[in-house]
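PROTOCOL LOG
Step 1. Enter all chains and additional molecules of the complex.
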Amino acid sequence: MIRLRASLGFLVVCSVALLSCSSSHSDRIVVGSKNFTESFILGELIAQQIESHTSLKVERRFYLAGTYICQQAMLAGRIDIYPEYTGTALTAILKQGISRDKQDVYQRVKSEYERRLGLTLGPAFGFNDTFAMEIRGEDARRLNVRTLSQAARFTPQWHAGFGYEFMERPDGYRGLVATYGLHFAEQPRIMDLGLLARALKDRRIDFAGGNATDGLIPALDLVALEDDRHYFPPYEAVPVIRQQTLQLYPEIARVLADLGGKISNVEMQKMNYAVDAQHRDTQDVVREFLKSKGLVP
Amino acid sequence: MNLLRFFVQNHTQVLELTGEHLWLVGWSTVFAMLIGIPLGILIAHRTQLGRPVLATANIIQTIPSLALFGFLLPVPWLGDRAERLAILALTLYALLPIIRNTYDGIRGVDTTVVEAGRGMGLTESQLLFQVELPLALSVIISGVRIAVVISVGLATIAAAIGAGGLGEFIFRGLAMVDNRVILAGAIPAAVLALLADFGIGRIEKRLRPR
Amino acid sequence: MIEFRDVSYSVNGIQVLGGLNLRVAHGEILVLLGRSGSGKTTTLKLVNRLVSPTSGQVLVNGKANDQVDVIQLRRDIGYVIQEAGLFPHFTVERNIGLVPKIEGWPEERIRARVQEMLQLVGLSADLASRYPHQLSGGQRQRVGVARALAADPAILLMDEPFGALDPLTRDELQREFLLLQQRVHKTVVFVTHDLREALRLASRIALMEAGKLVTVLTPAEFLTSSDPWASAYVRAFGDGLESAANRGTS
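Step 2. Run joint prediction.
Step 3. Record the structure below.
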């Protein structure tokens, strides 16, 4: 019987020890990111900023596999801060309908996050990673075309290429064509996203549906046409942070404010290109950028 | 050695993720014991209930874990927090070994001993706590051991739905195509499973009736 | 002391015991003799309600035993089975002290009682801290008897207690049991299939066959009985039965 009691006691002690192994970290900030280049460039940006402007230690938990995973990690306190897109937060996390107004989307996300989830947003980084309709730079210059409305006229002479998802989404190809009155020479080609820019450059297509911050845009001398009728929803990159973390370490608010509006679409494109196509080290690329902006001494 | 250096440099994160892993395994095992052991005792004494209960636990066991995580995602309250979902799923998977071994353990107690006890005037609850459970304990603990080892493995998959733990290293490492990160998750998970198997096995041996 | 009134017991439509009428007098050793399937063990178990009759009544000390608290009933009756049914995870001391413990006796009294019982059944005091698996079969059986007597019950039920022992040990224990009974004067119901044992121990022998009580005779009467079953038994057991009937000193 003594054996029984001793064993049970031992098991209880072990269980209690295990159960108190929850994730709590002190004087450390955990920065997360999703598993694509742009996301961990932004994550690295946040991490380096915190490291150089505060006395806090930063732990990186990058390459988390998607929006849901990051969200769960935030709610559970396993990460304190990570870069998200306003449009994604509104539709995928808050499950609400999207609007076209940048400010409106940002405000709605911020207030819902603060009200319901104990999270908040820092100021937007300054670029909008939404869909971008690309044409070759030479065509843009020759035809003096900068916006989609201007380009509509030339579409009967052009072949277009898009990713599969864009073709299928109701707020993708169909809406685009309707909004701008585009009439392509023939049915657009469906291609792998990664091949679109190349195909455009090699003149196999003349009009491609890509991402606004695609690194290949400046590299291959492509031009992203302006969405003058604001058809595409805003996907402004923002830092999402736990309110509890901000309360514990208010110095982070200043760090995030310093990053606000500092990255233009073109600058993001260049950083993406450096990491993806030139295979440069992310940490170096980010350090260079911060220096160039005077954000680090 | 590259891997060793990686472990040393990232030891806080390794420890953190290990802690998350143990949290998932710990709670789910506790719940599975709280449900499974009484259930096992019940069906050991009422064998007609035995077949449906064991059959149900068996069916749960055969559902692929990732699929079960997926089913539970849209459930309100559960799906809101990945840890809740993961702990529920892990609890369900731990039930079969615990129920089955409790059942086998209690049924395996020498019936003459139980009848002698009953004949001497022990109440049913005294019989349970002073005779049946102590004699069945080794087998029951064996069931707990199996459950824990299974849980340590399944908890690595829980990272796929955002519950954290050592599986996160594995998934991140796959995305980064970095073996060190993968191993930073896989090795501690394997070590945990082995330690649990060995440690609980020792307790089992000491409890075995002579 | 114990009375069976028209007791029948059936299970799954099969009648195990039919129309049993039997009285056990205070202080006697009543042996239930019969072969396997004769219903003798069932009869024994009806006394402490391990089995409940399908019809009829079992009275213990004048009261129908289904009208009293079954737990208290059992604690007031000593129960010894073959292979002793000792708890393997309890020491000898804890085994013997079990009923006193659950009856709430103070520790000191239990300890003293255990020592007393060990002495009574002829075991040395230092066996108290041993475990059953460390004892011989004979020692285990003695502990079983000690355990049954620990709370000083008036009635003792014994189900082939010496059946699994070698002949030498069995003989020893039978002899000692008789001496014990002279000291403690319990009312004993003893089940066996061994006529020799029955003749040696019984005040009276209740012969059972196929669930029915055939006859109840003293050992001397049994040897000379003309009842077909009784004489069949005598024949089957061969010679030397008289000495057993005389409380044999062999």
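Step 4. Note key features.
Chain B touches chain C at residues 110, 112-113, 115-123, 126, 130-131, 134-135, 209-210 (CB under 8 Å).
DSSP finds nine helices and no strands in chain B.
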